[in-house]
Amino acid sequence: TLVLAGIAVAREVFTAVDPTVRVIRALADGSSATKGQAVLTVHGDAHSLLMAERVALNFLQHLSGIATLTERFCHAVRGSRATILDTRKTTPGLRTLQKWAVTLGGGQNHRHSLGDGILIKDNHLLLLQGRHIDLAQACVLARKHAPHGLRISVEVQSLDQVREALQGAADVILLDNMTPSLVRKAAALIKGRALIEVSGGITLQNVSEMAAAGADFISIGALTHSAPAADLSMDITPTRRTPRRPRKQER
Questions:
Q1: What CATH class is the domain 2-69?
Q2: List 54, 78, 81, 193, catalytic entry
């Protein structure tokens, strides 16, 4: 089953090429489609339809692929408290559309930009070491200078770093590339004092185990950078033209 995304975009493509192209029937974005089912029917000049075909299909195939993959991950964690998130690993110029497709598949958006939240990562910590600032102190400094209400997240790769993040009162602790057993140990340390995000190496085969280990959020870059394109194509059906009546010759 395919989760559709990009129907509205494809419609815009056809009408941008030729305003006289008419949409006869269209399924809604976010709805499901089965193999062989028509998802969009348009009527217009053949030359215009062929000009718009590839661009319209590129959007439909790419965005529907993202929505469909997201739905599969969401289905895999159904019944747990885990929420599937995307990341900022998006194609330049397409972030808004790709993140929209994720929501159509049932996922939620992570940050759209750096300004949407503070995430302290390994490179930040490496740079701060030169100023003798550890992970806990980095969290405190981030809280001090952040706008009111902005979450402070910190990426950790060990249980010792989990303890430091708790000491710094991080809102979200991102467990990076940890095994499910290590996620369980981290969750036992955190004990609800921070939200738990899991990222790195997440697949359809292990995502349910990560959710069961105690994740509140599971962020997956593959949703936008590696989703396979949906199998969609355009078939043209010629319409009969009304034959012209022969003109009567004047005598």
A1: alpha beta
A2: 54
Classify strands 83-85 and 2-3 as parallel, antiparallel or unpaired: unpaired
Which residue ranges make up each domain of the chain?
Answer: 2-69, 76-225
- Name the catalytic one among 81, 121, 122, 231: 121
Q: Which of 71, 86, 176, 197 is catalytic?
A: 176
Phi, psi (rounded to 5 degrees) for 137: -65, -35
CA Rg value for the chain: 25
Q: Measure Cα distances from 238 to 38, 39, 132, 235 in Å.
A: 16, 18, 72, 10
134 is catalytic: no
Q: What is the pLDDT of residues 158-183, one digit of tens each?
A: 999 999 999 999 999 999 999 999 99
pLDDT greater at residue 184 or residue 241: 184
Q: At what angle do helices 135-145 and 159-167 cross, to 10 degrees?
A: 40
What one-character DSSP code corresponds to residue 80?
S
Higher per-residue pLDDT: 119 or 240: 119
Domain 76-225 has CATH 3.30.70.20: no
- Is 89 a catalytic site residue? yes
- Dist. CA 152–CA 130, nearest whole Å: 22
Catalytic residue among 29, 71, 86, 155: 155
Instruction: Give yes or no on whether 2-69 and 76-225 have one common fold.
Output: no
Which pLDDT belongs to residue 47? Answer: 95
Helix (H, G, I), strand (E, B), or coil: what is residue 158?
A: coil
CB 68 within 8 A of CB 2: yes
Residue for token digits 């105690």? 214
Whether 71 is catalytic is no
Would you put residue 214 in left (φ > 0), alpha (ψ -120 to 50) or beta? left
